[in-house]
């Protein structure tokens, strides 16, 4: 099979790495890719959101399957465009991708289908939103409704902070058009977990539950980022919790989307808070998470190509999805200053020194320049290690991460630690 992976981050490098293990793969392209994906296949100089060019490339190169990594092209309708051109592509269409593309849509959808989530109100205008803040309990969540690269959710401890967040989003347009609508939401107490299912719209198979670490600094402090690390399986998602998620969240979501004429095919990401009242949905994503992908795909034993093709071509219900009994931990190395201003072009050394027996380096913001690998983004790369125990995977990942250096490199030193108290 000839396969095209759309995207350039750590998630896409991991997808490409997993696809490259398939004996059925004949040629792999990544558009636009990064310095890491270049070692697995051929990077193509087409942006992830350049839909017309991607369709044309897939036609000219007789691509058998396209896998979409990031959310923006999904929300923009890349699947619809490929399907119109009779090209096989894995992911939800534009209508179904509203589950991530519009938080207002997803919250209203959950309300219609009695899917457990935080209480909320949606606003198009600043003044009524400001008035509503006078009535809420603290802390409170203020969200840009549209896509904001994982940074449009602001936890506010005071009314002053909430007003500042509202002004940032609606008046100063910190997240552009994503902030044309805002969702003001109840703050849920509990522990977060990510559960991702592969689905053909009726049948679904769940991947291992994982736990992301969004704040920039140790102890969950500092501004939110795209994610500073993850581990899987996350023990907070007990067998009992997973069954509740199946029954009360995933199945009603798929049924509801089908009833509303938006049959959902692809990766369905449920970002959950495990509260005293059970799991509640914080957000849906219409694709794999990043960095969750860097721990759940290494723990997928099945051939990813076989699984994804069965979703598109039929037979998914019978296709085995086998999961490892191991643990995996990923720690993200970021540029100094991230998620604020940071510089690029810093040389990265030590990438070839990691132990290939149990460690992988998944590139994100990297590129090759004059034969050297240099930084080219906020989140630069993630190191993932497997282990028979969670502690072993954590110990290994920090040991391997210590071998890699670049000027200004920053990372959290506590990834996975919260999971250890379960063992």
Can I get a quick summary?
The chain has 423 residues and is α+β, with helices and mostly antiparallel strands.
Q: Could you explain the architecture of this structure?
A:
With 423 residues, the chain is α+β, with helices and mostly antiparallel strands. It contains 12 helices and 22 strands.
Biggest sheet: strand arrangement: 3-2-1-4-5
DSSP helical segment count: 12
| Structural class estimated from helices and strands | alpha+beta
Kindly estimate the percentage of residues that lie in beta strands according to DSSP.
Answer: 25-35%
Rg result: 21 Å
Low-confidence stretches: none
How many β-strand stretches? 22
Mean pLDDT value:
96
Which sheet architecture does the biggest sheet show?
Answer: 5 strands, parallel
Could you give the distance between the termini?
42 Å
Which overall shape is indicated by the principal axes computed on the Cα atoms?
globular
Helix content bin? 25-40%
Features of this protein?
single chain, 423 residues, alpha+beta, 5-stranded parallel sheet, 5-stranded antiparallel sheet, globular
